[in-house]
Design brief:
seven-stranded mixed β-sheet; seven-stranded parallel β-sheet; alpha/beta
Length: 447
């Protein structure tokens, strides 16, 4: 009798999960049902493998969805976070395990009691960020505590970037994940963190001007801006004694200052629509946000509005995006400013066929042991193979698939809605990630 795994969502992030499970399928006696709204996409990911069946699956077709959940032993949801909950409720009804790479939502957390009552494992936050960040950080934190140390500061950074060999634009950036999330980054409230025992808040309009610089091995200098809520995991990680708790997003140096120009201009807003956006040129869109002048050009007005000097290299970044084009049309009906910016950026920042992406993760953890202050620097770099097996797909998909296999094999048994922060869960997963080229380099220094 084969173990049935239902994978819902066959987008780019599912590629490495599916490949891993298919490679293990004969040895582990697995059968994968790969469901997506696009049957063609599901078939592509199934690769004609004898242990995989591709199906067209509409999440909102309750009868069909429940039928496939009932047939499975475990469900992997690769859908956007907001769409997990219906699958999760089905998994409770039919007593099936579930795995997602998304943050635990309040609705998911509410299922915890029922999940435990049915002795089910609902493993969440088992992708990259969240996921590998939890596991790699908890490994260091637990090791420090085991030897009698006390964590005094915790800083953690992650970013999806373009690999150096494919870095061919002035922003040193391309879309390697959901472009919408990039445009809306840092919105929805002030960034909150702890610095030397003091609570700090950075409002959205200041986030991209308050960056931290990182000098990392091999790949050099980066910058990081603050995540919205760095304190979310302070208690979960056991960092009550830490005076500094900060989580940030990594970019190449110069990106944040340039991006802040869009923030200042106001074009990253997603709360209202632009009239007549469908027929508007890129140039006309930018001009919407500038004062009227019968004589000044759009370029001049933008320079004046954003205080950009003649010799400022940030100007070249804006020009490169073709935002002053009078011929390129937005082509989106009733679009928000953020949606229009996403469209403009997609012209320049979409990965080319031969491009490779890169994941960078870095932890800087300070601790005290017997009066001696020390710091552990832990860094991980992962380069994608191609457009299908990107670094992002690999780092999101592999931990998720490894966890799924360990659950169906009975190696992860603790019931409940959870994340991978316990040693018996994260150690074997990190070990297998190392075997797949996702390796952290650690360096300890005495301060």
């Amino acid at each position: 009798m084969k173990t049935e795994i239902l994978i819902v969502g066959a987008g780019r992030s599912a590629s490495s999960s599916i490949k891993y499970l298919l490679e293990k399928s004969t040895e582990e006696n697995l059968h994968l049902t790969i469901g997506d709204l696009s049957l063609e996409l599901a078939q592509k990911k199934a690769m004609g493998h004898p242990n995989a069946t591709a199906i067209q699956l509409d999440l909102f077709d309750d009868t069909s969805r429940r039928k496939y959940v009932e047939q499975a032993d475990l469900v992997i949801s690769m859908l956007p976070a907001a769409l997990h909950i219906e699958l999760a409720k089905d998994c409770v009804t039919f007593k099936k395990h579930m795995v997602t790479a998304s943050y635990i939502s309040p609705a998911m957390a509410e299922l915890d009691e029922e999940v435990k009552k049915n002795n089910l494992v609902f493993m969440n936050e088992i992708g990259l960020d969240p996921g590998i960040d939890h596991m790699s950080a908890m490994k260091i934190i637990h090791e420090i505590k085991k030897k009698g140390g006390k964590v005094t500061s915790f800083e953690s950074f992650c970013g999806g970037l373009i690999a150096p060999e494919s870095d061919d634009n002035l922003w040193n950036y391309k879309f390697t994940w959901n472009p919408r999330n990039v445009v809306l980054a840092a919105q929805g409230g002030a960034a909150k963190f702890l610095q030397e025992g003091e609570y700090k808040y950075i409002p959205y309009n200041k986030v991209f001007r308050r960056t931290e610089f990182l000098d990392l091995p091999v790949y050099g200098k980066f910058e990081a801006y603050a995540n919205r809520d760095s304190l979310k995991y302070q208690h979960i990680y056991g960092l009550e004694d830490a005076k500094t708790v900060f989580r940030g997003t990594i970019r190449r140096v110069g990106y944040s200052r340039a991006w802040n120009l869009f923030v200042e201009l106001g074009v990253t807003d997603d709360t209202y629509v632009i009239d007549n956006s469908e027929y508007m040129s890129y140039r006309e869109f930018i001009n919407l946000y500038l004062p009227y002048s019968p004589t000044e050009t759009v370029e001049t007005k933008l320079r004046l509005a954003l205080n950009i000097e003649q010799d400022d290299t940030v100007w070249d970044k804006l020009v490169e995006l073709d935002i002053f084009s009078a011929t390129k049309k937005i082509g989106l009906k009733n679009a928000t400013p953020a949606q229009i910016v996403e469209k403009i950026l997609s012209d320049s920042w979409t990965l080319a066929d031969n491009d490779k992406d890169m994941i960078v993760m870095y932890h800087k953890i300070g601790y005290e042991q017997q009066g001696v202050r020390k710091q552990i620097n832990s860094s991980m770099f992962c380069i994608g193979d191609d457009q299908t097996y990107t670094a992002m797909a690999k780092t999101v998909g592999l931990p998720l698939a490894i966890a799924a296999l360990k659950i169906v094999k009975g190696q992860i048994t603790k019931p409940g809605v959870q994340m991978p922060i316990e040693e018996d869960i994260y150690l074997p997963i990190l070990k297998e990630l190392e075997q797949n080229g996702i390796v952290f380099q650690e360096e300890e220094i005495t301060l």
